[in-house]
Amino acid sequence: MTTEERPSVSGAAIRERMEELAPPALAELWDNVGWQVGHDEAPIHAVLVSLDVDHAVVEEASQRGANLIVAHHPLLFRGLKRINPADYRGRLLRRLLCDQIHVFAAHTNLDAVRGGVNGALAAALGLEPTAPLVPVRDAPQGWGFGAICEHSGLTTGELVKRVEASLGVAAPRVTPGFNAPACHTRVALLGGSGASMLEDVLRARCTLYVTGEVKYHEAQDAAREGLTLVEAGHWGSERPVLRRLVEWLEPLGIPVYESNRVTSPFETDWKEPQ
Q: What is the pTM of this model?
């Protein structure tokens, strides 16, 4: 079967489906969501969902016959003033264009909806979100960034085991809060970089916070306020949303694959060369 004979849907159908889940109006003003490479008229035969777009992910898309990558992190984020085919970004863009592989991004707009990054993180950890950490105006269901989860009582150790088992994060870093309770009944979650929302976590009276990454002095401040932090890694804390995106796009009737490439720059299986 040739490429032209394979079942396809329009780029517009993909865009509209993604915007139904994560309306672009919810994205932060500094963000860049939507089409990164491609357009509504493109016939899409198969989709690969990934957190990032790099050469390994593009190669995976090519091997799977996917001519669209739906990514969480935008490919074109900082201002692009020139394309140099000799550098990493230039080679990546050249291959995408030459191989006719399109790229669509849903970033902070996917963070701001209940069924997005943080809803998927909560589900992976066996928790039920009851409210957003920071509400976003006009977000569906009154949602927003992060999630507050109430529990009958969960120890730090129990939560760490869930992070290790469900997110595949070996030995996550833990900052025990000074005078933190033995069991936590209000847990805050935020996939990715969550340091900017520490004050919101404290205002929400949460005593345990699971996020992707926090800086040294911010962790010190949190601990002094009695807040326990579990740092699950940026990639590990956002990865659960990929399965949700697969399930969301599958009703369009074309193959949708979850990337199996580890795009985190912190390799968990690194070894000293022999």
A: 0.93
